[in-house]
Amino acid sequence: MLTDWGPYLPAFLVLLAFLWLPGLALLWAFGQRGGRILLSAPVFSVAVVGLTGVVLDLVGVPYGALTQVVAAVVLAALAWLVGRLVPRGGHGPGSSAAAADPADPEARFGDGRRWLFPVGAAAGLAIGAVLLVRRMASVIGQPEAMSQRWDNIFHLNAIRYVVETGSGSTLTLNRMVSPESTLALYPAAWHQLASLAVPLTGDSVLVAHNLTLLAVGGLVWPASCIFLVRCLVGPSPVAAVLAGTAAAGFSVFPFGLMAWGPLFPNILALALAPVSLGLLVRLLGPGVSADRTARAPDGAGRVRLAASLVVTLGALFVSQPNAFLALLVVAVPLAATAWWLGLRAAAGARRRGPALGLVAVAAVVVAAWLLLWNVLTTGFVWEPSTTTARAVGEALLFGANGREDVPWVLVLLTGAGIYAAVARRRLRWLVIAHLVLVYLYAVAAAGEEGPVRQWLVGGWYTDSYRLAATLPLTAVPLVGLGAAHVVGALATGAASLASFAGRPRAGRAAWPVAAVVVLALAVPYSQVESLTQATRWGKQYYAWEGPESILNQDEYELLQELDELTEPGDVIAVNPWNGGSLAFAVAERPVTQYHVESPGVELRTLDPELHAVATGIDDATPDSPACAAAEELEVQWVLDFGTQFIIPDARQAGEYSGINAVDPQAASGLALVERNGDAALYEVVGCDGP
Q: Model pTM?
């Protein structure tokens, strides 16, 4: 099956270049060095992409591959200039590496082998990428398949909108469905990235979209996870390998969001979020990290880290703010720990000024946190679906939303990580953060409806699927920490036995042997059965034929013929509830609606002219309201995809009686042009004068 993707390898490589090279150029120009910039580059690239889309739209320059490259070069030059003006930074006076933690059994074995972490990081990224890309490609099936779910109509059409209009701004992307709006906010980064690949895929939005999914979910996500584990655990090759492996082992992300929604911007944002968390950890200093090599940054170093963190937060906002909400949650115990350590140090040194300053900072941060949390909440409600006890169990066992298969290896390593974090003390905040995410999932999945539940999880639309996808943000570093701890403990035990047996030289091989044994077990068993249900569920929604399909194979083939049957610019009347809106994404033809409306909105209320066309164009006459509306909307064609709707019982879907299951013998206002199975294209002829 993977051979079907072969022809699109050049487009995939170009996407990877856009995901890595702008960020690398930005970081290098700003003065950042070291292997970690290879892992964190995509989040900076997405920030470059998002900012480019906004700026180009404001100055009236079309967005595309060429303008994106030019903008990336300009931004890299600006970063170089800023990097020359800002002091380079380093470590605080007297700062040094954290002393070896007596609760860290691995510490006595890893010293002096600096080359091991790059090897482990490369291996972890390779393993995670292979596992993820292989399974994601299996879920998708064919390169031109699509997730047959509600939100995908918008996402696919939005990609075409960026290509056709050259407008890729987060500030205006939603003009596709609200053309009269001055400010039409919608996170655009996902659609911008996919649009860059469209010209290389034979002008196929569907293929470009799927390639973007493979690139972001298959490579960006494991790279970000390894970066976070490096910041939290240190240069442990075992933790790096397990971070990449664990990134591919959770069914809740990215696989859970591929079918639910599908929530592609959320996938992008959550794939970037670990880098933001890692930078925040570095900014707050070695007191909140188990990294023995960490140093406390000096003032200039903090400025540079803070600037980098702000850029990554910008990337989250142009991707999907839900990921920023997850960071706000995790940041509470993290920042509280750093604050308490600072306050205790200031009090111990009897320095009243710094202590009072920390109190003032805490007040400002809490106020800002509450403001952001309240701004990002919503009034949309998904109803609870299970009991509290079951929801907590699902989250702790990574079997959220009714999944039956449990990734036991990852559960056990998470438990080991929790033990190690508590024992080391510095990472206790990570355990608290993980449990808070578990709690929020339980609130969404089982909490009693009311203002408290709405305030706690309203930012995720009270949707348990979105909350479940945040669990790996804290679980992956716990898995990496747990694996490193288990290997260190096994190596310590083996070395002690060797010494007791009078063979101390044999103890030198204890760590590599323990590492190989743990990895040999953890890597394959992270995949056994744990993802079967998620894969099966995903395939169900990527199939052309299904009970709630947006498009079936006949309809898709007819859309592909529209460029021969109609002229560019011809407007087609469609029913968005049966997939007709995708004539824009597939065939570049303007349509009367680019996405479905909320189920509670009636078409007659939304747009009277559109309602007149939808209900009367089949038997329209020159003096009828339908013809007057068709002339105003410039409608020349009708696409009839029958009565299989995204939501079968949606009342609004039936408001298109004039273009649903048309009888060509009785429809005097329409002339059949082409039929493919039950899908048909009609020309509007009833409005022609005598």
A: 0.94
